[in-house]
Amino acid sequence: MSATPTPTRDLLMFVVFAAAVLTMPMWLAPIGAGYPDLLQKFAIYGLFATGFNLLFGLTGYLSFGHAAFLGVGSYTAVWTFKLLGMNPIPAAIMAIAASGIFAVAIGFVSLRRSGIYFSILTLAFAQMSYNLAYSVLTPITNGETGLRVLRSDPRLFDAAGQGDGPLVSTLFGIEMSGYPGFYFCAVLLIIGFFIAQRIFRSPFGTMLRAVKSNQNRMNYTGLNPRPYTLAAFVISGMYAGLAGALLCITDPLAGAERMQWTASGEVVLMTILGGMGTLLGPILGAGLIKYFENIFSAFNEQTLHRIFGFLPDFLETPVVAITSLFVGEGWQLTLGVLFMLIVIFLPGGIMEGFSRIGRMFRRSSGAKGSHQTAPAE
Amino acid sequence: MTLIRKPLSRRSILRSGAAGGLVLATPTIFTSRAWSAGYLNEPTGDTVTFGFNVPQTGAYADEGADELRAYQLAVKHLNGEGDGGMLSTFSSKALGGNGINGKKVAFVTGDTQTKSDAARASAKRMIEKDGAVMITGGSSSGVAIAVQSLCQEAGVIFMAGLTHSNDTTGKDKRANGFRHFFNTEMTGAALAPVLKNVMGADRRAYHLTADYTWGWSQEESIKKYTEQLGWETVAAVRTPLGAGDFSQYITPVLNSGADVLVLNHYGKDMVNSLTQAVQFGLRDKMVNGKQFEIVVPLYSELMAQGAGENVKGILGSSNWDWKLSDAGTQAFTKSFGQEYGFPPSQAAHTCYVQTLLYADACQRAGTFMPSEVGKALEGFEFDGLGNGPTLYRAADHQCFKDVLVVKGKENPSSQYDLLEVVEVTPRAQVEYPAELLGGELGSYNNGV
Amino acid sequence: MDVFLLQLLNGLDKGGAYALIALGLTLIFGTLGVVNFAHGALFMLGAFCAVSFNKLITLQKIIIDPTKTTAWGTPLEVRTPYAEAMFGDFGQWLVNYSVPVSIVLAIPVMLIIGFVMERGLIKHFYNRPHADQILVTFGLAIVLQEVIKTLFGANPIPQSAPDAVRGAADIGAMLGFQAGAIVYPWWRMVYLLFSAAIIAGVFAFLQFTTFGMVVRAGMADRETVGLLGINIERRFTIVFAIAAVVAGLAGVMYTPILPPDYHIGMEFLVLSFVVVVVGGMGSLPGAVAAGFLLGILQSFASMNEVKDVLPGIDQIIIYLVAVVILLVRPRGLMGRRGVMEN
């Protein structure tokens, strides 16, 4: 965000964003990501990271337990399916409500502390939720196997409706798997983005930024920051809950591992990788990590040989041997290297890269970037 | 490594695009999923694609790597390369080493990370993007069940890899899912009589159980069968998955009056709990005038390697072992050993066999349509795949075959020779009625 | 009674391990102010120093025996360890004592790793936001893990304690109780003593040397120390290297208890952060106290009598205690004001 935001610019950005999201199946196909499941994941984790960024990016409060809300949202959504029926809308609403309530409880306690103490409190709550969901809460969560919709469930409103077909979520007769599922998630991502954009530009957003820059000064002016941070925490928890619900709407299964600290850590990484405090960054970060997880892990020696088939044999073998360290079972290595390179050369994440490119183009006209960054090396 | 070189297809263009930044393809939205076909992902070219979904990262990465080796070997054999492995000993002679139904076999791979979400995402990619007609793999029951129900919803066949929980073909069975590996019920039935012979009928057992579905299933089966033989269960304690240090669960065993410790753990949990239990001197203990014993109901070669010398003399059960002397085992071990330089694990074996069984069923059915392939597998009796005469039971899609009771070897001759077969429990002894474990298969889903 | 005593021993033993792991982290995290997500990886590298040392001394000479074949038809390989062939009894002794002896290897290796890490990477991140520190150290941790996975595989590699301390000691008989009632593994007691010694060593170093005094002053007020003309940055490099050694030694000595694999560090990562924060940021004694407190409580929470009343309590006790302590004491047990509070 190198230029000052104006309503026109915001609108333009929103329209471009919405168009880009809706046309993802087209422009992501050439890089092998144009299939429904991954597109859904892009949209869902983009939403999750956008919500997380509302807390972390604006207030600077680093929650290390946000996956708990993702999990609560998922379980609520599946229970709504089981009890009420396969319509995604009640499931999403119930999930937002449940994760909101959960966030109020955890936020109220955790926000009594700041800095690392806050992070560890949220981490502790999430880990407790995960450990219990995996074991003693199995009657509610179905433990390791994960909670699913069964044919024997009551499903008050549509139990009779579906015969022998697969049990997937349906919105007015449209099955929420495949491309319709993606568009459902995409629309919610666009709405979520719009709300986030409004929050960024609102006085509330300014207040949250004030919490980040200097809480003491805020206290001295007689403002109590707690209600603002709690509100941000709850909103961000609701985003996570909705993301959790969407995971189940597109694929009705909720597993406990969604609440593990690694999942919480993943959203932290997505946000930082993309650029914390920027609107688009977290979504880009989420996309990048999911892309690596799904596409890079799928390369095997056979695919590599096909890709490098154009090389002469004496070159092909070593090239394949070296590349195979970074793909397939080594995809995490690539991710680790990527994290380091980005943070070393682009402090501020991917968005910093974009604004640098932007500055490069504007340099001739004398425009000055808003960021002053020192390279790490 | 020999490869199946395909002509430049849409998919390979997409892949080279991914690597080289080449932008040259019709968006899949217009081309994927041929709706005119009679079933999902009906192969239209000269190849048919299998999806191998195994853990490549995380605690089971080595097991997954071994499964992948077996799958690649199976594909070679199906396409007529190499020495043919168990194709030559398999009782069904439908396959001729020229692919299946006239199509060469191709495959795609993916990483389950031993997480349900990641495994389903990976399987969906194979189905939605790569056009796989069959998904196989797994190293954990939770993941296998999650992927199995996904395959049922999507409409492709799932051939389970290593999954030992009763639920896979019990409570959570699905018409589109098939399992060759054995389960905790069979472990209990096979292991209990041997335990009685070795340790006597008057024993007091203490269970440490991994606190999740598979652990509970294992605990229940062992309890059931040992109690029938007169054993008493002193206590059954749940331990958190991935506890690492089990000392706080082991010390209460010392003075509990128990004289047998049953470790219902798998993978790293088992490696750690066994190592530590031995350190606590349990194996040198005398209780009630009897030698204290440790039992590990489910063994794997990799776990035995991880626990090192602590496994010596410890009893457990296994689906298969490369040292068996039947022709099928010998052919497979020879073929695998020549390819990779070491013998296959039981995980590799079950994955190889599952691929062959699926291929054979498709050949006999003359199609890849899930409902037809499923019918060809149901009630199929076969032999020559390393487990003796085997039945794919129609009622629950579970294979019934002999179960091995194994023991950690006292003097291993090499790093791969860690387990010895104590007894081959005949199939009749481990069979149980399909209704016992509940669940319902439902009907086949062809995905259209 | 015996059950109680045994759990107390377990708690102390766990506590020793937790304290040792947390000690290294709190040096880096609580005092240098770097959120080091690669700390688990340092622990893991230490453990793999022991593995490498063991592999090195058990390197085998491979002779191909053409008269015998394997089950898959290739000629049989006969392997004999070089160390035994070359040094005879000493070689055998070396193999037997490989875990404690590998400390000799681990200290210089971990010093170098710590030094290179600090000079090459961490140094540039002292003044960067915590978010950047998280990303870079997490990335580094993944890279280190994957390198180890490529070299050693993903399966745990068993390491055994020396024969002399392999079994369990009958402590009950020593203390005059009934024989066999209280037995505890020798190696775990060695580990407890070892961690106590290392903790004491680090404290003494910081408390009684001039170097330690300067470092402590630098922790309290980096600017003033800088104004006095003391190069605090160079001292921080040494502190970082010491922290790496402490983490590495904790890893080496833990291998006989937990066969190490490439992922072992990640499993301790979250726990070590919890211990450090519960102890209070910037406080070494706090981290040690928290380590022992959490270890002991975890042991007692796992007793069957407790679990019968509160099922699953053993799975969450650490986090539950962390929440309670952080709510009762705003800066953990002994945290200093203003460290990592915003």
Automatic annotation (TrEMBL), chain A:
It is a multi-pass membrane protein. The chain crosses the membrane at residues 12-35, 42-69, 89-109, 116-137, 181-200, 227-247, 267-292, 304-327, 333-354. Coiled coil: none annotated. GO terms for molecular function: branched-chain amino acid transmembrane transporter activity. Keywords: Cell membrane, Membrane, Transmembrane, Transmembrane helix. InterPro entries: ABC_transp_permease, LivM-like. GO terms for cellular component: plasma membrane. It comes from the Bacteria. The keyword Thylakoid does not apply. It is found in: Cell membrane. This is Amino acid/amide ABC transporter membrane protein 2, HAAT family.
Automatic annotation (TrEMBL), chain B:
Keywords: Amino-acid transport, Signal, Transport. Gene3D superfamilies: 3.40.50.2300. Residues 47-409 form the Leucine-binding protein domain. It comes from the Bacteria. The keyword Ion transport does not apply. The keyword 4Fe-4S does not apply. GO terms for biological process: amino acid transport. Belongs to the leucine-binding protein family. This is Amino acid/amide ABC transporter substrate-binding protein, HAAT family. It comes from Roseibium suaedae.
TrEMBL record, chain C:
This is Amino acid/amide ABC transporter membrane protein 1, HAAT family. Keywords: Amino-acid transport, Cell membrane, Membrane, Transmembrane, Transmembrane helix, Transport. InterPro entries: ABC_transp_permease, BCAA_transport_permease. GO terms for molecular function: transmembrane transporter activity. One of its GO terms (cellular component) is plasma membrane. Belongs to the binding-protein-dependent transport system permease family. LivHM subfamily. It comes from Roseibium suaedae. The chain crosses the membrane at residues 20-53, 94-114, 134-152, 193-215, 236-257, 269-297, 309-328. Pfam families: BPD_transp_2. It is a multi-pass membrane protein.
